[in-house]
Amino acid sequence: MALSPQFLDEIRNRISVSDVVARRVKLARRGREFVGLSPFNKEKTPSFTVNDEKGFFHCFSSGEHGDIFAFLMKTEGLSFPESVEKLAAEVGLEVPQADPASQMREKRRASLQEIMEQAADWYSGELFKPGSKVALEYLRGRGLDEQTIKKFRLGYAPSGRGLLTQALGTGGITVDEMVACGLARKDEGGGGAPRDYFFSRIIFPITDRRGKVIAFGGRTMGSGQPKYLNSPETDLFHKGSVLYGVAQARGPARDAGSVIVAEGYMDVIALAQGGFTHSVAPLGTALTEAQIQELWRLADEPVLCFDGDKAGVRAAGRAALRALPLLKPGKSLAFALLPEGEDPDSMIVTRGPEALARVISRARPLVDVIWSLEVSAGKFDTPERQAALKRDLRTRVRDIADEEVGEFYRLAFDQRLERMFPRPDRYRGGSARGKGRWTPNGRQKPKKFGGFGSGMSGGSIGGLGQTHGDFDGLAERQEQALLALMIHHPSLVSGLTEIFAEIRLTSVRLDRMMREILNLLGSEPNLDSEGVRRHLIAIGNADLERLVQVVLSPSVYSTASFARPDAGEEEAERALHDILDWYGRRQVDLDRQDAERDLAADMTEAKEDRLFGILREQIKEDGLYSK
Fold first, then answer.
1. Cα 212 from chain centre
2. d(Cα 516, Cα 237) in Å, to the nearest integer?
3. CB under 8 Å to 427, separation ≥6 — which residues?
4. 426-434: which pairs have CB atoms within 8 A and are 24 or more residues apart?
5. Ranges assigned E (strand) in 134-270
6. How far is 251 from 232, CA to CA, in rounded Å?
7. pLDDT in tens, 388-423
């Protein structure tokens, strides 16, 4: 949009900066200026000023500065043309068109958008007709209430392959216009009637930032392929630059100072219904550069919340690498991978919004993900391999266009490399725990059998999943599986009661139950599985009895085969050793954090030796340094 300075000045003359700002900030006059609390940072003392005479605002706490257009862009996520259009409409000015060609394009876009709105209304109406009962039941079966269905304007394309074109045609819309909108396709042979682009699918309207429908997504309810289908590219719709749910998420994202990026339509809708209304999704493709820029208009550090399966890990890795060249001071991404087998919908339903909020609150910064992508790719047990890792990290740094951001990434990677490959002349003394493998109480660890959770979902995924200290993110189900194992195989536990005594479960109720089992086996080490179960029930605690039923239930066994009553002792022993190994590494992680705090409070050589001794143990155990 090419606008003359005179036109922009006319808008500025008709509305003051304080009038625009006062809609979001409570202002108080102070001399020739207005002051208020910053809309960009949380603060108690006002540092935000507005000067109508000079026509600008300035925020001393954040450094933000600009005129009325800049204020709308920064606080409402509008583009410059959108902010001009909004303020021009408020002051009664018509935005001039640059040239006849632009006027024609805008007129065509407006016409196509009106057709898309009519199509959206038709799809929505079809959803609630008697013949579409199966579609409405499907959405309700996914947990969507009527308010959510209407908020996202969900609809249904019936099985008849020309019903939409017939309905729109009666209103005077031509076939060419429908094809231009991506609503219909002509018969390839040229002789038949046009066919609807969507049929027998749930319909998800896709809008621009203003909420205007520009495309549709369709989901089949059966076994048809593709499972999801988007509108074709049109003058209105360019898939790689659009985010699903952006119109609904703009306001909540601005208020929350954050935006969640999920994988698909249903994830966004489930998140919104669960209270996470600041959620969007790409449209079935890897996150593009244009979509990342769009996200940064909503929040400085969007959180990518993907499924913890292999596909989710790959998507997170692709997004991390794609974001690198675009990074600027204050603009980045964070990553929160769900436990394997979970998506936002299932997690909210089975564990509640609080569990999902915990996962999102522990999102890993981009620098951690790039580091993990490199160090999880191989071994670094020779100088040549170590040098290759350093080279690869430097290559990633060179991908960053902003020199200042790139320099800080280089420093961050260099610091981690120093911890991972300590120089003998600097790191003296070795571990404060002594040599060899150790546990928090100095006893030898059980043999390691791989990642935590043999035979059950969850755990670290490809170097991008939960960290060792993040057992809470794996949820109660895996703690329940541990207790089921203890009940069904008490002989495996009897000789390890002292090690178990140092473990603390995240669930208070489950932790108390574990203590009860340990106390029992401490006094009666030869007790069998049935004896343990009878003892727990005989205590007479109704809550404990209900908890035993939960722990020894098929739902626990379905995600942890080793916890089943018929699981072989060898399988159970492998899982138990794996779990104890996991808890040992978790304790090392906690010890490291304690050593870091201790060193920060008092920088002495002895405390530095202690910290890097622990770090060397982590490197031996994990093959990488996890912060």
1. 26
2. 62
3. 609, 612, 613, 616
4. 427/609, 427/612, 427/613, 427/616, 428/609, 429/606, 429/609, 429/613, 430/609, 430/613, 430/616, 431/613, 431/614, 431/616, 431/617, 432/609, 432/610, 432/613, 432/614, 433/613, 433/614, 433/617
5. 155-157, 184-185, 195-196, 201-207, 213-220, 228-230, 260-261
6. 28
7. 999 999 999 999 999 999 999 999 999 888 888 876
Q: Above 60 in pLDDT, residue 54?
A: yes
Bridge partner list, 155: 203
Region label for 459, one of left (φ > 0), alpha (ψ between -120 and 50) or beta (otherwise): left
- Asked if 244 and 265 count as a contact pair (C-beta separation under 8 A), the reply is yes
Contacts 24+ apart (CB under 8 A), 467-473: 467/364, 467/589, 467/626, 468/582, 468/585, 468/586, 468/588, 468/589, 468/622, 468/626, 469/586, 469/589, 469/590, 469/593, 470/362, 471/506, 471/582, 471/586, 472/358, 472/506, 473/339, 473/358, 473/359, 473/362
DSSP code for 32:
T
CA dist., res. 260 & res. 305, Å (int): 7
Task: Tell me which DSSP letter residue 319 carries.
Answer: H
**H-assigned helices in 210-324:** 246-256, 265-273, 289-298, 310-323
* Residue 111 near residue 235 (C-beta atoms within 8 A): no
Within 13 Å, how many C-alpha atoms sit on residue 375's CB side?
21
Residues 6+ positions from 145 with CB-CB distance below 8 Å: 273
Strand order in the sheet with 33-36: 28-30, 33-36, 48-51, 56-59, 65-66
d(CA 492, CA 525): 10
Tracing tokens 């536990």 back to the chain, one arrives at 493
- The lowest-confidence range among 96-105, 374-383, 558-567 is 96-105
- At residue 609, the pLDDT reads 67
451-473 pLDDT, tens digit each: 344 444 333 323 333 333 333 43
Q: According to the model, what pLDDT value does residue 61 have?
A: 87
Q: Give the pair of three-digit tokens for residue 533.
A: 């179960």
Higher pLDDT, 627 or 371: 371
State the average pLDDT over residues 55-71. 91
Distance of alpha carbon 65 from alpha carbon 573, whole angstroms: 63
Model confidence pLDDT, tens digit, residues 213-248? 999 999 998 777 888 899 999 999 999 999 999 999
In whole angstroms, give the CA distance from residue 391 to residue 405: 18
Tokens of residue 260, six digits = 């969640």
Nearest-10 crossing angle of helices 246-256, 68-76: 100
Taking each helix axis from N to C end, the angle separating 133-141 and 100-127, rounded to the nearest 10 degrees, works out to 90
Distance CA 582, CA 584 (A): 5
Say if CB 81 and CB 209 are below 8 A apart: no
According to DSSP, the β-strands at 303-306 and 260-261 are parallel
Is the C-alpha dihedral spanning 453, 454, 458, 463 positive or negative? positive
Angle at 167 between CA 162 and CA 173, to 5 degrees: 100
| Element containing residue 461 per DSSP (H, E) | none
The domains found in the chain, sorted by start residue, are 5-90 (3.90.580.10), 100-237 (3.90.980.10), 241-371 (3.40.1360.10), 471-620 (1.10.860)
Residue 78 has pLDDT above 50, yes or no: yes
Query: Which residues, at least 6 apart from 370, have a Cβ–Cβ distance to it below 8 Å?
Result: 320, 321, 324, 396, 409
